[in-house]
Amino acid sequence: MRHDRKETFGTIAVLLHWTIALLFLGQFALGLSMTKVKGMALQFELIQWHKSFGFLILGLAVLRLGWHLGAGRPRPSPALSPVERASAAIVQALLLAATVAVPLAGWALASTSTLGIPTLAFKLVLIPHLPLVPSEQAEAFWRQMHGFLAWATILLAAAHAGAALRHHLLLRDDVLARMLPILSPRRLAGRQTTTESDDA
Amino acid sequence: MRDLFRVRPAAAIWPVLASLAAWAPPASADALSEAAGRYRIDKTSSIRFSVDQAGGGGIRGSFGAYSGAFRIDGQDIAKSSVTITLYPKSVHANEARMENFLRSDAVFDVANHPEITFRSTAVKRIGEDAARIDGVLTARGKARKAQFDATLRRLSGGSISFHVTGSIYRSPYGMDVGTPIYSNVVQFDMVLNGTRR
User: Which residue windows are transmembrane per the record (chain A) (predicted)?
Assistant: First the structure.
């Protein structure tokens, strides 16, 4: 089952990557806007949705981390220089860690809030608080930490995406296509399956 | 805001009646006749409420400002009545954030609906010193039937005290924010002290 020991990322890795990426972007936008809406009821609801999606991301990120460790990564693209490989690997490792760390910091925030609002993910699953002592100080600390990590992650993701786009649009290599198979692969060798369009 | 004790002379009733009725079998109407009269709900009363939350615990709060009156009918407890008005701006909770949330348009909407009122429509004795009070509770401009149980705590001279409890669904009043994390049921736990007028 070690499909990922190939030229491209496997289906599971690709799905997890893009699902988490989209969820994270949505969460970032929601996190920024939810505290600025006027209505308190809407604000409350949006925060609960933010918590729900945060736990979804946390679950997927843990799954992805396990998959990453178990299935491994494809061979580095030959298009990359050693420096590029090293910097890409560092950014990717940080992003993997961030997808776990940002939700964890949010969990800590919810857990230390003196409001003690329970988390009922998607109105279905009661998530217990982390064993932290609620206090104004702890809540303020984790609010800052959660925000800081989220912004840091967005910046990392921007660098990550920028690099991928540079490879795809300027350097015209297969770096992005390895994670986004819908882009027509430039090297058939990298494909796990062959389609008619490839033959065309 | 200083007219908190604007008493409503109309038939306003309290849980009081029930207890009185208990002592007032036809043979001895003494207690009832002793308690009969009009009372003003005084500020030594306490109006507390709680809303359970998922996983245990919940929100606890109280109202600091209220006014009201009740009349105990010495002849027929069922003719007794009570009215009470709460001023939700005076809500107290664990912390200011919660109080502001409760005052906001998410819950009480005190800017547009500064009063919550209850007016009894029927009083029925349900025990030795207990009564059930049916009435209409109006909040956020919506009037719905509500029911409270009152138990006599104390009766002495010009004062009388009742313990009053009741469970009110908040969704009919457009206050269902937070469900199902927070219960739809608000549990009231009140001590209403009346001073004879």
Answer: 12-34, 46-67, 88-109, 145-165
Tell me the shortest Cα–Cα distance from A22 to chain B, in angstroms.
27
Tell me the pLDDT tens digit for each residue of B2-36: 443 343 433 344 444 444 544 444 434 456 678 89
Classified as helix, coil or strand, B20 is helix
Q: Which domain holds residue B136?
A: 16-196
Lookup: tokens for A77: 């693209």
- ipTM of predicted assembly, 2 dp: 0.79
What is the CATH number for B61?
Answer: 2.40.128.110
- B10 part of a folded domain: no
CA distance B94 to chain A (A): 8
In percent, the amount of chain A with pLDDT more than 90 equals 62
The residues, ordered by sequence, that sit 6+ positions from A192 with a Cβ below 8 Å of its Cβ are A3, A6, A8, A10
Write down the residue that tokens 């002379």 correspond to.
B9
3-state secondary structure chain A: CCCCCCCCCCHHHHHHHHHHHHHHHHHHHHHHHHCCCCCHHHHHHHHHHHHHHHHHHHHHHHHHHHHHHHHCCCCCCCCCCHHHHHHHHHHHHHHHHHHHHHHHHHHHHHHHCCCCCCEEECCCEEECCCCCCCCHHHHHHHHHHHHHHHHHHHHHHHHHHHHHHHHHHHCCCCCCCCCCCCCCCCCHHHCCCCCHHHHC
**Interface touch B95/A128, C-beta < 8 Å:** no
| Number of domains composing chain B | 1
pLDDT per residue over A71-96, tens digit each? 877 777 777 888 988 998 899 999 99
Please tell me what DSSP assigns to residue B156. E
**Where residue A179 falls among pLDDT bands split at 50, 70, 90?**
confident
Measured between alpha carbons, how far is B40 from B68 in angstroms, rounded to an integer?
A: 6
Among candidates B54, B95, B178 on the partner chain, residue whose Cβ is nearest the Cβ of A114: B95
Residue A109 distance to chain B (closest CA, Å)? 16
Q: Give chain A positions within 8 Å (CB) of B101.
A: 40, 44
Q: A82: cis peptide before it, omega within 30°?
A: no
A84-123 b/e (C-beta count within 10 Å ≥ 16 → b): eeeebeeeeebbbebbbbbbbbbbbbbbbbeebbbbbbee
Residue B1 in any domain: the answer is: no
